[in-house]
Design goal:
It is built from five helices and no strands. The chain is mainly α. Helix 1 (2-33) packs antiparallel against helix 2 (43-62), helix 2 (43-62) packs parallel to helix 4 and helix 3 (66-86) runs antiparallel to helix 4 (92-115). It is flat, with a radius of gyration of 18 Å.
């Protein structure tokens, strides 16, 4: 039975490689997230965090890991909205950029909901986001 053994070995190696890469990306994610906890987080740091989150989400998606893909997008979206609440004294450009990035993450989440056939959740998320964005202006 060498075929099942070699297939099992191939799966194990690929899963191990995926987990190692994901672990490395998570370290980069936490490093990119750290500046968000400070009042003087810059636009560059915000974009770096957003880009790192999307890099992880894209990697999960291309590897067929739908659960992690969704979890990363959701965490990104929530973290961006949290940035809007965390410091009301932020400069207007920071707020506008944060809303724009959150809109992009919301779009990805809505695509997941629609792919699952859950139009109601997608509509609900869009409605909540629009209400939230309107309240920020």
């Amino acid at each position: 039975m060498p075929i099942p053994h070699s297939f099992s070995l191939w799966i194990t190696r690929n899963l191990d490689a995926y987990q190692q890469t994901l672990e490395g990306l998570r370290v980069e994610y936490y490093l990119a997230e750290r500046p968000l906890y400070h009042q003087h987080c810059t636009l560059s740091e915000l974009r770096q965090f957003n880009d790192m989150s999307l890099k992880i989400a894209d990697y999960c998606y291309t590897q067929g890991d739908d659960d992690n893909y969704f979890a990363v997008l959701l965490a990104l979206h929530q973290k961006l909205l949290e940035q809007l609440h965390s410091n009301v004294q932020r400069e207007p450009l920071f707020k506008v950029q944060t809303i724009q990035l959150a809109r992009h993450s919301m779009t990805g989440l809505c695509q997941v909901f629609i792919a699952q056939g859950d139009w109601q959740k997608a509509s609900e998320l869009q409605r909540e986001f629009l209400q939230y964005a309107d309240s920020m202006s």
